[in-house]
Specification:
Structural class: alpha/beta
Strand content: 15-25%
CATH class of the largest domain: Alpha Beta
Order of helices and strands: EEHEEHEHEHEHEEHEEHEHHEHH
CATH architecture of the largest domain: 3-Layer(aba) Sandwich
CATH superfamily of the largest domain: NAD(P)-binding Rossmann-like Domain
């Protein structure tokens, strides 16, 4: 299922924010997506202000980034970070109870927000299974729409990097991935493509009102993804079908709701290809990275034990 849902970059009037302009505030600045967005912005010469919950976590941020301590659960703690800011990248990393107060504060200081959401409005069964995160995203989008802020909504599908969290340990151990729904198809999107699109929407004009669903370029079953990783590593990998009930039993209690959400989504998509959009190429003017490219660039993560955090 191939969809186009964005205006090609070549057809937009683009004005890049000058380096002397107001800083872009990045929330979740030390997380998987926020940290990479900080790098993309600084590489483009855009002044960045990073919101972090603990100052020590910002030690690896690039030189020149303005680091401010604040917490989405304490809306008044955001005031210092929002001073003289016109654009905010919002990654919601907190319970929903303070969402309305946070959006009110953003609207009082900033003009535009780019929100990292999910494809919960996408007409494909993989994304239509009820789950608490989809409800939270929908609520925050409604708050943003009612606030008067200009907004751009970024909706990445399944991240290619999930393969690291799900399968790397098993592949390192014996090359056998024991997992449910081998035939379920997704279109894994490279994290780097997501952050590149986010960064452009933060420092370019022309994205107000944008609603961008980001996917990889091809529909692949989970078994095909595991096979591609094996091809890249030059050694066989095997997908061993795991019954859903067994998968659920093996999941820690704290992650059970996420497991149920995934099981429902995988089951719902059996028998049809993944939802694929052209948004990455439309926005970046180049093809999105394939899952094979992603696996090649991350091959060592499937062969070497991760280094403990210092």
């Amino acid at each position: 299922m191939k969809q186009t849902n964005a205006t090609p970059a070549a057809q937009r009037h683009v004005a890049v924010t000058p380096a002397t302009g107001s800083p872009v505030l990045v929330t979740g600045a030390t997380g998987r997506i926020g940290r990479a967005v900080v790098d993309q912005l600084t590489d483009a010469g855009v002044p960045v202000r990073a919101l972090v919950r603990r100052s020590e976590s910002a030690a690896t941020l690039p030189t020149g980034v303005d680091v401010i301590t604040g917490d989405l659960t304490v809306p008044e703690s955001l005031d210092a970070a929002l001073r003289a800011v016109s654009t905010v990248f919002l990654v919601w990393t907190a319970p929903p109870r303070t969402a309305a107060a946070v959006i009110d504060r953003l609207a009082a200081h900033a003009q535009r927000v780019v929100y990292l959401s999910a494809p919960h409005r996408t007409p494909h069964p993989f994304f239509q299974q009820p789950n608490p995160m989809a409800a939270l995203h929908a609520k925050i989008e409604q708050l943003i729409a009612a606030s008067g802020l200009e907004s751009t909504i970024i909706r990445p599908g399944m991240f290619a990097s999930n393969a690291l969290f799900w399968w790397a340990a098993s592949i390192r151990e014996d090359g056998v991935v024991r997992w449910p729904y081998s035939a379920a198809e997704t279109a894994p999107v490279d994290d780097r493509d997501v952050t590149a699109v986010v960064a452009r929407t933060l420092y370019e004009d022309g994205h107000a009102g944008g609603d961008y669903v980001l996917t990889g370029p091809e529909s692949l079953s989970q078994a095909e993804q595991v096979s591609i990783i094996g091809d890249v590593l030059g050694r066989p990998t095997t997908f061993e079908e795991l019954p859903p009930d067994e998968f659920r039993r093996q999941t820690p209690e704290t992650s059970r709701s996420a497991a149920d959400m995934l099981l429902a989504a995988w089951q719902a998509t059996i028998g049809q290809p993944a939802y694929v959009t052209s948004t990455v190429s439309d926005q970046l003017g180049r093809p999105p990275r394939t899952f094979r490219q992603w696996a090649t660039d991350h091959a060592t993560a499937f062969t070497e034990e991760p280094h403990p955090a210092s």
